[in-house]
Amino acid sequence: MLFSQLPEDVLYHVVSFLDHRSLCRLSQVCKSMHRFVNRDAVWRKIAKEFLNTGITRDGTDIYPHIPLKDRVKTAQNWFNGVCKRASPLKWKTKLLPWLQLDGDTLFLSQAANIGAYHLHQGTRRLLRNPFQIYSGHQGDVCRFAVTDSNLISGGSDGKILVHSRRNHVSLELSGHNQEVNCIDSKDGLIISGSRDRTVRVRTFLIYYCYAYSLCFSFATGTACCENFSPLLIWNVERSACVCSLGSEFRRGAGVLDIIFESPFQLFTCGYDTFIRLWDLRLSPRSCVMEWEEPHDSTLYCIQTDGNHMIASGSSYYGVVRIWDKRQTKCLQFFQLSSDPVSSPVYCLRFSSSHLYAALATALHSLDFKQSPIYIR
After folding, report:
1. Residue 81: Cβ-neighbour burial (10 angstroms; 0-12, 13-18, 19+)
2. pTM, entire model
């Protein structure tokens, strides 16, 4: 009996002992083995150990439409820092942009407007002209969040606007007295924080949205100027602070970005140059892990792949860093800004093959899928 004629359950057991290089060699043996090895089930175990393959810690596949074999190949470029760099959008006036990714659409705020741009389905190249522009703020858009049916924005004018992505209708909600520094939305709730030192939670019933449950928690990060507890966890149902995270923070060690990776785990970064992982099931007094920015720069933003990878944006020269959670030191870094005047990375987002970063005068992209060019 030939090896390729073995029962499939036996073949799966045998290939489970092979690494990615051995699997690639095995796929070249014959057509039947090529078809078998190309199955996602063969690569799933290996993909979970690589960076940004779309397989999260709990086994969820974020990008089921992309073959796992291709994602493992791209993941090696993420690990080695091999990519192509481009600046698909540039502007003259210095801004504080923000961006979000939703499938094949990239949303980018520029001054008082938010543009929605198509990404080419194959190359992920940004089409320069937005197919939709969301407006209505009297000042700059500070932050915005994207859901399946709405885009919710907060501006320097204190307003909060809910834009329908279906029928181009906008609704203004009662906002804040000063600029909105952060905003998020989940299950029909809108949570916003402002420079006026308040956090507001709203429910809304519009555009077929409904608040199914109020039983969840959210985190707030402050500037750490008048107290030494910049990180607080709040329960929405009780409208009360559940706990404060950490201790002995330096004065001014404010929090600039918070990412929940699960209901119990969150990542934070800010002025004290550390990325920290917190687990709400453990002691709130100390973090589980921390990673330090090696050049002592403020960290403006972070994003995770739900498994092993963290991407961070620093305050100087548009530096983006790639981290492996299993290591304490930075894995790769990319200096995106070539201007004489330094710019922070105000926001970054990534897909399985591309990373997009918004700086003061340009949107930059790193393509980890195309022909490799090693950059620094």
Report:
1. middle
2. 0.89
Query: Coil, strand, or helix at residue 198?
Result: coil
Check: CB of residue 100 under 8 Å from CB of residue 146: yes
Q: Three-class SS of residue 143?
A: strand
Mean pLDDT of the chain: 86
Which regions of 77-187 does DSSP assign to beta strands (E)?
84-90, 99-102, 105-110, 113-118, 132-134, 141-146, 150-155, 160-164, 170-173, 180-186
Q: In 3D, which of 292, 350, 291, 298 has the Cα closest to residue 319?
A: 298
Judge whether residue 186 has pLDDT over 50.
Answer: yes
- Give the pLDDT confidence of 20-41 residue by residue, as tens digits: 899 888 888 888 888 888 999 9
How far apart are alpha carbons 185 and 196 in whole angstroms? Answer: 20
Q: pLDDT tier at 216 (50, 70, 90 boundaries)? A: very low
CB 201 within 8 A of CB 189: yes
Instruction: Give yes or no for a contact between 311 and 293, defined as CB atoms under 8 angstroms apart.
Output: no
Domains with residue ranges and CATH for the chain: 3-78 (1.20.1280), 83-367 (2.130.10.10)
Residue 218 confidence (pLDDT): 63
Question: How many whole angstroms separate alpha carbon 138 and alpha carbon 342?
Answer: 28
Is there a contact between 82 and 332 (Cβ–Cβ < 8 Å)? Answer: no
| pLDDT tens, residue by residue, 240-265 | 777 888 777 777 678 899 998 988 89
**Mean per-residue pLDDT, 272-281:** 91
Contact 160, 183 (CB under 8 A): yes
Long-range (24+ apart) CB contacts under 8 A made by 223-226 are 223/252, 223/254, 224/249, 224/250, 224/251, 224/252, 224/253, 224/254, 224/255, 224/271, 225/251, 225/252, 225/254
Question: In whole angstroms, how large is the CA radius of gyration of the chain?
Answer: 22
> Mean pLDDT over residues 341-346, rounded?
89
74 and 66 in contact (C-beta within 8 Å)? no
Q: Is the pLDDT of residue 231 over 90?
A: no
Q: What is the Cα–Cα distance from 162 to 172, expressed in whole angstroms?
A: 6
CA 179 to chain centroid, in Å, comes to 23
